[in-house]
């Protein structure tokens, strides 16, 4: 039997949602082993005064196996 734990993180990118997800998972992987997957809980954008997206933000729930 294995036990999984879920943590929630926030990550951002000036490029894309996909890049924000990659950045977040890379950072978590520096200290957490056994990452099994993640899902995007929320997506946000920061815009300039003209409605252009200047930053993508995601909240991720990351699942990993407890050792």
TrEMBL record:
Question: Which superkingdom?
Answer: Bacteria
What SUPFAM superfamilies does the database record attribute to this sequence?
Dodecin-like
- InterPro entries tied to this protein: Dodecin, Dodecin-like, Dodecin-like_sf
This protein is called: Dodecin family protein
| Organism annotation | Pseudoxanthomonas kaohsiungensis
């Amino acid at each position: 039997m294995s036990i999984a734990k879920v943590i929630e993180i926030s990550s951002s990118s000036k490029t894309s949602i996909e890049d924000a997800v990659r950045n977040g998972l890379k950072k978590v992987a520096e200290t957490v082993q056994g990452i099994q997957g993640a899902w995007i809980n929320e997506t946000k954008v920061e815009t300039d005064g003209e409605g252009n997206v200047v930053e993508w933000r995601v909240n991720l729930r990351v699942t990993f196996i407890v050792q």
